[in-house]
Design brief:
The structure holds 2 protein chains of 2 kinds. Chain A is an alpha+beta fold. Helices cover about 25% and strands about 35% of the residues of chain A. Classes of the chains: A alpha+beta, B mainly alpha.
């Protein structure tokens, strides 16, 4: 049985369906992420799990038992708030002790657990500090410690890294993964940052307009997006409008208007004439100066429009024959590359036949 | 720049020196003089401690002080209890209604103080509560309630609602959320309000004079009596100084208390 289950979960605000018929199951021990742009309903789901909001239809089940009518203070789960919401009049130790005091633990147990948990987040020496004396990263850790100390069945995290700067965020991501592995508590994480979701999660549910577009492991989401939205939302991608020309078990031939034929692989039986998008990651495209060295099945002539040198890689924006611009990412450390292609250079772009995926409309 | 600064600060400084510091020093000086035969002060011969000796000799003065502090404390406590729900309600109202409610709280100030007290006489007379300790306390609470509501509202309005959600999420019942989160964070507001109520009540003489009975005399009445009725200025001055010292000691205590609750104020503002 799944630890947490949504059954046809729906929440409306007036005419707007903030959450629309969502069914998901989250397993014990999972690091599960709800990912999507702002307004997609991810935070509404989180608030319904915590009990601050109630579904209009459908149900949330914890260990197979409905949470309907259970007030937030009676649910065996805790939330790490976006603003941390640390109690400003209590010390770090006081904040972390709070959920244990609410659970009427003995003074001795509280002292032990607080010390243990503060050690877990490397804040032993800050026990007697007040929240306003801490840095953003330290506040974040106190909020995590406070959420974890009473060993909830589930920890909900509402964009907890949103307020941190980029470098600190990366550090906290590493810590968060280690922490979750160490305590073994199920995390339900909400974010709009796709990279963060990919880095942290066991599974991700990509949401849009109150619906789950795709729920999968990070690498599946990245390499096999279910539709244009997911492909576009996760990482960088080229989307080329195509229609199916010939579909066999081993080879899929697509027709791109203005470009010509693209060879792809798709085991699904597809009907000729079906429309969709061919989705191709920039790092799977090669850019060559000579036609002969571009010896892959898909090969198209183009002109370099722009190039961005990013240190480890260079991003080329190449205009193809039909005028559409595709992005290609070339590692700068690739063997045999003597020079960069400059703006205006005629080039050949090519990719393997199994590099991209066909997305039906 | 410097000249401008002087020009701007000079008038209030001169005003305060002339009309606050000078009279205060005169009162201090008067407390060490002898009373004149027909009021005022006797010609100066030597500093006299007669007024203070008189004050400490008779237990009645200590009793009146004690009663005044009791009335002030009781008034402050009742004000806190009455003001808290109201301040909370205003702070949780939509922004537009909030301004209206605050206006309603300060609206009584638009009418004359004595007129409002006479209204109480009309109200309490028919139910036989006039000239009782109850009337005094009721009048005191009525006059000073807005001074408790406003600082409390200002404080509560700044509380982050996420803190209450966090407390609830971590297992706190409504009762616990109030006592563990809202109340401690509102202490600075309570301290400000208490100072604004307690201190004026200590010196107030109009309310007990108009609503109280013969047994309800407070320090304010006593001081007024020395100056206007008994013509014993040194005793009145000495009583004033004792009152001032007591109030300053309490204000110091309140400031200390407010500083202890400072962690709360910093975070919510």
């Amino acid at each position: 049985m799944a630890l947490l289950e949504f059954r046809n979960l729906t929440r409306r605000f007036g005419d707007l369906s903030a959450v629309n018929d969502v069914s998901l199951a989250i397993e014990a021990g999972e690091f599960f992420t709800l990912l999507g742009p702002s307004g997609c309903g991810k935070t509404t789901i989180l608030r319904m799990i915590a009990g601050f909001d109630a579904p209009d239809a459908g149900d949330i089940l914890l260990d197979g038992v409905s949470l309907a009518g259970v007030p937030p203070e009676k649910r065996p789960l805790h939330t790490v708030f976006q603003s941390y919401a640390l109690f400003p009049h209590m010390t770090v130790a006081g904040n972390v002790a709070f959920p244990l005091e609410m659970a009427k633990k003995s003074a001795l147990e509280i002292r032990c657990r607080v010390n243990e948990t503060l050690a877990l987040v490397h804040l032993e020496d800050k026990a007697d500090s007040f929240p306003h004396e801490l840095s953003g990263g330290q506040k974040q850790r106190v909020a995590l410690a406070r959420g974890l100390v009473n060993k909830p069945r589930l920890l909900l995290l509402d964009e907890p890294l949103g307020a941190l700067d980029a470098k600190l965020r990366e550090e906290m991501q590493v810590e968060l993964i280690a922490l979750q592995r160490e305590v073994g508590i199920t995390f339900v994480f909400v974010t709009h940052a796709q990279q963060e979701a990919l880095a942290l999660s066991h599974r991700i549910a990509v949401m849009r307009n109150g619906r789950v577009e795709q729920c999968d492991e990070p690498d599946k989401l990245y390499t096999q997006p279910a539709n244009r939205f997911v492909a576009d939302f996760i990482g960088k991608i080229n989307l080329i409008d195509v229609e199916v020309a010939v579909s066999t078990k081993v080879l899929l031939t697509l027709k791109a208007p203005g470009l010509g034929e693209i060879a792809a692989a798709d085991p699904r039986p597809l009907k000729a004439g079906e429309r969709g998008a061919f989705a191709l990651r920039p790092e799977l495209i090669r850019v060559h100066g000579h036609k002969e060295s571009a010896d892959l099945k898909n090969r198209f002539a183009g002109t370099v429009r722009e190039l961005l040198y990013l240190g480890d890689v260079t991003l080329y924006k190449v205009a193809l024959a039909d005028g559409q611009v595709i992005e290609a990412l070339m590692p700068n450390a690739a063997p045999g590359r003597a020079k960069f292609h400059e703006v205006g250079d005629p080039v050949w772009v090519c990719w393997r036949h199994d590099a991209g995926v066909f997305l039906k409309d | 720049m410097n000249a401008t600064r002087w020009l701007v600060t000079l008038p209030p400084t001169v005003f305060l020196l002339a009309f606050f510091l000078a009279p205060a020093l005169i009162v201090v000086a008067a407390s060490f003089r002898e009373p004149g035969e027909f009021g005022g002060l006797a010609p100066f011969v030597a500093p006299s401690l007669e007024a203070y000796r008189f004050l400490f000799d008779d237990i009645i003065y200590a009793e009146i002080f004690a009663r005044s502090f009791l009335v002030a404390a009781l008034t402050t406590l009742i004000c806190v209890v009455l003001a808290y729900p109201l301040a909370w309600l205003i702070a949780r109202s939509p922004a537009k209604r909030r301004d209206l409610l605050v206006l309603l709280v300060i609206l009584p100030f638009a009418s004359n103080f004595l007129v409002r007290i006479y209204a109480w006489i009309m109200l309490l007379g028919p139910v036989n509560l006039l000239y009782t300790p109850f009337a005094v306390i009721a009048g005191m609470v009525y006059v000073h309630l807005p001074f408790m509501i406003l600082p409390l509202y200002t404080n509560l309005e700044k509380h982050d609602p996420a803190l209450l959600e966090a407390a609830q999420d971590l297992g706190a019942s409504a009762w616990t959320r109030f006592w563990r989160v809202t109340f401690p964070l509102s202490l600075p507001g309570i301290f400000s309000g208490a100072a604004l109520v307690f201190i004026p009540v200590l010196g107030m003489f109009a309310v007990p004079e108009l609503l109280g009975g013969t047994g309800d005399m407070l320090i304010g009445n006593l001081i007024k009596e020395q100056f206007l009725d008994n013509r014993d200025w040194p005793l009145g001055a000495a009583l004033s100084i004792m009152l001032t010292v007591a109030v300053l000691a309490l204000a110091g205590l309140a400031a200390w208390g407010a500083r202890r609750g400072l962690h709360g104020t910093e975070a919510v503002s």
